[in-house]
Design brief:
This protein is of the alpha/beta class and 304 residues long. The chain contains eleven helices and 13 strands. 39% of the residues lie in helices and 17% in strands. The structure holds NADP nicotinamide-adenine-dinucleotide phosphate. NADP nicotinamide-adenine-dinucleotide phosphate (NAP) binds next to helix 1, helix 3, strand 5, strand 8 and helix 5.
């Protein structure tokens, strides 16, 4: 298939790009940074520059593609959430999605599928409720961002194409994401849960995120929002315990919420959210997770 991938230089996108190449798809990588993308992707893909907000020559690559995948977005975890950072987090997602849907609408031959990232943040936080794809939007900054992001993607449904919105949980891999940030304190015997640790932690192994995107491409009946987290969520205190076991380090000091707030500001709300997300649609469609058990996932990631 001809696949246009935006955000393919990132933590999830880079891994997806390798899988698409391995499966012999013809990939066009949309990026804001041509040199970096060429360096990362080698000669196996075409690299096309865009600014992730306006139309331009890049729109030609959408024409006659089969699938468009958009994983673009300013990182939510790299900087303190000032007003301007929050605006960037929102704009980078809404504008990139809007530009892609606009390009699809102008294409002479439209793709049949748009796979657009979204996130677990759409559900806000709930201490115990199971979060299914049918659960309504929650409260808070990230819930509002995800809602606006998904609404832009949904506009492609009016173009009679299949639209999948990936409500991605906390992706585990060694080179990036949450785990990369959690490892150093554990290695220095300082790792422990945030707050009381009773919050549900919606982890998913990066390989399963990539595998489920490939699965969605092949299974035409899957559409709409898709929860993308492992089928067995755990509480944060248990996550820290298992991580400590795999690293041969104890999970020692819980970080009190007021300290966390002093350290990271508003972002604390994201870190202490409780989100028992269940991948109901993926499970009922027959998707087989490679990593359902946390310890297996962490062993696989950390053995290298
Ligand atoms: N990782 C997770 O745990 C997780 C959890 C839930 C949801 N998600 C969502 O899944 C998607 C992929 O996640 P990821 O961890 O792979 O993200 P990432 O590593 O931060 O990469 C995202 C990509 O988006 C592009 N980008 C960065 N800042 C941008 C901006 N200001 N405007 C437009 N594009 C920008 C970059 O591509 P170029 O530089 O090539 O343009 C970058 O490679 C994101 O939308 C993220 O919100 C991730």
């Amino acid at each position: 298939m001809k696949v246009v991938l935006a955000g393919g230089t990132g933590f999830v996108g880079g891994s997806l790009l390798s899988a698409l190449i391995a499966e012999h798809h013809q990939v066009v990588l949309l990026t804001r940074n041509l040199e970096k993308a060429k360096h990362l992707s080698g000669n196996a893909v075409s690299v096309v520059e865009w600014d992730a907000k306006n139309g331009g020559d890049w729109e030609k690559s959408i024409d006659s593609s089969d699938v468009v995948i958009n994983l673009s977005g300013e990182s939510v975890a790299n900087k303190r959430w000032t007003d301007s950072v929050k605006q960037k987090i929102l704009d980078s997602r809404v504008n990139s999605t809007r530009a892609i849907v606009h390009a699809i609408s102008r294409a002479e031959k439209r793709p049949s599928l748009l796979v657009n990232a979204s996130a677990i943040g759409i559900y806000g936080s709930d201490p115990e409720k199971k979060l299914l794809e049918t659960t309504p939007k929650g409260e808070g900054f990230l819930a509002d961002v995800c809602d606006s992001w998904e609404k832009e993607a949904s506009k492609a449904e009016n173009l009679s194409i299949r639209v999948v919105k990936l409500r991605i949980g906390i992706v585990l891999g060694k080179e990036g994401g949450a785990l990369k940030r959690m490892l150093p304190p554990f290695q220095f015997f300082l790792g422990g849960p945030l707050g009381n640790g009773l919050q549900w932690f919606p982890w998913v192994h990066r390989d399963d995120v990539v595998r489920s995107i490939l699965y969605v491409m092949e299974n035409n009946e899957i559409q709409g929002p898709i929860n993308m987290a492992a089928p067995e969520p755990v509480r944060l205190k248990d996550f820290c315990k298992v991580l400590g076991k795999v690293l041969h380090r104890p999970s020692l000091f819980p970080v009190p919420i007021f300290v966390l707030r002093l350290m990271v500001g508003d972002m604390a709300d994201m870190l202490i959210a409780s989100q028992k997300m269940i991948p109901q649609k993926l499970k009922s469609s027959g998707f087989q997770f490679r990593y359902s058990h946390l310890e297996d996932a962490l062993q696989a990631i950390l053995k290298y």
